[in-house]
Amino acid sequence: MPFQSFSIEQGLSESVAYDLLQDSKGYVWVATGYGLNRFDGSHFRAYYEDQGLADNKLYALFEDSRERLWIGTERGVSVLENDTLITPEQYSVLSSTSVKAVFEDAEGNFWFATDGNGIWKSEPGGILFNITDQYGYRSVHGNSITQSPDGTIWIATEEGLMSILADQVRIFRERDGLPDVRIRDVKFDLNGDLWVATNNGLAVKSEEHFEVFSREHGLIDTRIQSITVTDENRLWLGTENGASLFDGAGFTSYTTEQGLSSTIIYSTMQDREGNIWLGTLGGGVNLFTGEIFHNYTVENGLTNNVVTGFEEDSEGNIWIATYGGGIQVYDGNEMTVFNESDGLADNIVFSFLEDSEGRMWIGTRSGINLYENGEIKPLQEFPSLTVRKIMETDGEFWIGTYNDGLIVFNGEVIEQFNNENGLLNNTVMDIKQDQDGNFWIATYGGVARYDGEVFRHYTVADGLPSNGVIHIHIDHNDDKWFSTFNGLSKLDGERVISLSSSGQTETITYFMFQDYDLRYWVGTNRGLFQFIPERYFEAESRLERIKSFKLYNKNQGLVANELNAGASFIAGDRSVWLGTIEGLSRFYPEKIQANTTPPGLEIEQVLISGMDMTNEERVVLSYNQNLFEVSYTGLSFSSPGQLMYEYRMRGLDQGWQLTRDKVIRYPSLSPNEYEFELRAYNADGIRSDKTIRYAFIIHPPFYYQWWFIGLLIFLGVGMVLFSYRFFKVRKQVDIERMRVQIASDLHDDVGSSLTELALQTDFLQAGELNPEIKETLKELGEHSRKIVTSLDDIVWSIDSRNDTAGDLTDRMQDYVNHIFKNGQVEVIYHFEKLNMDEKLPVQIKENVYLIFKEAINNIVKHSDATRIEIFFSFQGKTYELLVRDNGTVKVEKSSRRTGQGLRNIQLRADRIQSRLEIQSDDGFSVHAKGSI
Amino acid sequence: MIKIGIVEDNVKIRNLIQRYLDMQKEMSCSVAVDSVEEMLDHLKKFDAPDVLLMDIQLPGMSGIEGIGIIKKEYPDIEILMLTVYHDSHKIFDSLVAGASGYLLKHTSLPEIKESIENLVTGGAPMSPQIARKVIQYFKKSEPQQKPESNLTSREQDIVNGLVDGLSYKLIADRYDISIDTVRAHIRNIYKKLHVNSKAEVIAKSLRGEI
What we know:
The complex is a heterodimer of chains A (932) and B (210). Chain A is α+β, with helices and mostly antiparallel strands.
């Protein structure tokens, strides 16, 4: 049936559809007597007073320039915006009347047609006022409003056709040529002609009069409720007795016989894809997607709904084979039935052949009949055969049978091929002959090619998708196509390749044919597919491969989705006869128009871990909100079931995925930035204009966040640095401890022993002894003490507790005091620039002290000095030592002992890379400078 | 007759010093032990010596600790520290604890004798190192100190002179006083060190830090 019906059973809230509208997104809206309905091709969503409607009884729908949906109800208007229904305050004055039409004109004024309360108008920013009252027309019942290109507002009212332009108001009535004042609808066609739907016929305005169309012109009923102008400039008229299509010359009528669910049509509408929607009284909504199939069933003349085969005789009659109903011959008007009572061998008929002599061969379950000169006769030679296929070539008849193999018959000689002499299976479904004269035989054991001498078999081993081969098609290129129980396949060289768009592997293919335009069609258990081999073989993606098949099934008007084996026939008039299990469809391929309208696409709901986030923007989630679920719908009404979706989740390293599902779930997304992208394709592979994008961010748990990681790194580095410093300090402490240890060891062992030795000599000297021995003892004691003193210096210098400048100067002073007894020499210290608490490096401390000591020793030994000046400074990195006397005795450098002392000074100075100046011309001075 | 006691763990050194001092007419050294503990035992039983020579590094209680205990019980005993090395930190700690001076162990025996005599007659040795520490010490604890425990201006002068490396004689000359006066001042300075340290100990004990 060309009409699909949607009513309460499909989810419509009520069966009376007062108005229809497709919004800019692509949804179809149905205003019913109880509730507003939004339809997406498969589901209805209803809105009632509970959702904010002014009233549940609705009359009118209108989408304004801001894409707001206006709903005229029995008690005023409601506006749907962003899926929220409101009744604007300024229109509350309408709430006491039924609003039958809403209209926004080119200037942005809103017009409201009420039922008995006149026409109301509101200008942008202005108040709503009753414009018909203003012009003195009381109690006007409006039905419909439109505007002509010159700006005139045209209003269909029960009181006539009203036109308003500026202050000019006019009402057209019967005296103006209208057939009736009760005007239901008014529309301009694409030529700018004004069409008026009256209660007594269709009128078109021509200059100052109206041309009227009525029953005598073919109009099915004169009570016209609705006019829709199609994009082909045809008029669809909804009448109280069906729908009429007016093409400018004549009317084509559609009633319940053509599949309408109700005869009274209240509303008409054409959607973007060109489909016609009819709102009925009591039958819901009817959708007309185009009449490419014309159907016959037992309800309109078939004897049996299982149709198995066709043939067209030389007179143009179509012979129809049924499974149990015998034969029907259709001459274009009537069906003539032949069955067993007419001599047919069996009412189960499979095949026909009109032979070169004009005889019609009829293959039945129980042998072959010949129809000749108006009589059906049995062909006695094959009484028991179940004949599947009859083919004539060179005076021979090749007959395919169930269970009896292939029989070649030339009127006399019978040759039978079966599994004993060449075939692999005894059921022969089809026989074709290629351009080289080879026979191709479809059996339940694969395909056999017979060149007159040998059989070559093609089976699953050669790539055939199933050995159950039902039909063979040899195309204009001599390519061989095999229809099997597991899909379509094609011979490619010596191999067979299986052709299936994935997901259709279990499809049973019953036949393939090419129409007059050489387009390929495949009959299956799921409907009729148009197949585009070039697209299939050049496909680089799964999407393109899927797009190479386009399905036509019951939604497009095919009588049933399950076709029958080999049951297709291309008639001389280019129509195609298709046999199904529920009747036959006469198919008009040339009426097919590609649906180039991009499908709409809308998000229904976004759920994230159960929360509705559909209308949220800049969604930021925590790591445990990681279940993403989106539902959506593509909007195409020509073939909603064939919408294909492509989606991907950016951030997941994923390419486009294909699906026909309308819900996608991503469980447990890991923290990242994501953008979900979605687009739709209609059955013709046309992509939606819109790509839906939904971006969101899942934050990592705190232990993955940058600041935490940063903190960890910071702590780690800190630990390393700390450890480094700690161990460095530890090491330093260890070194210092070691220094102290060495110092005390020296003290304890060596120092004590030497001290003992010295004291021993002292003790011995106290006794009576030989002076020589005494002298030796004295020297021994002095020597010991000298060593102890040297040790003392060493211990002092390595003892880390003595590292300050103060310690050094103290030590210097002690030494000076030790060397020079009271008053012997005036010693002047210049330590003014010194910070006594500043630490000196051990090297500097030790060597400066030793230089100083040598210098003092030199003065003591060789100078007649009475005054010594000692200067020492240390400033951060530089130090300076100056020891100077006022002596006059020239120091002989050559002297052995002096030389030793000066060399020691030089040695010490070199150790700390000190610049050394020793002077002995005018007094003696040692000057050492350096930096760390 | 100066009675002398020795606390020294090096037996040889101890014996040498003891024998040498005992040989002197005006000195007697009847007690020479190797730990503070033994000395304390001795002091309980016998008369206290006038001068105690004491090593710093000792087995058991250290010499510095011993000074505090001994001076507390027997404030009249003058203690001279014996040290192998010129360790100014330990020496100063000893002085603060109550010692009256120090001697390097390798000081010749006659010099030891002389130092003891000087000490008894009122002399007290103070090296520049010690003097500087004295200044630091009084500077550091100045705020909370009672006036009487502060150094007098003359004492300050003397300490400064010592820090400058002046000899006792030069200091005496500079301030026109006798060397003995200098020595007396220095003894006094030692006492104040000791007093302050005691005050500090008391304060610390009152605060519960000890």
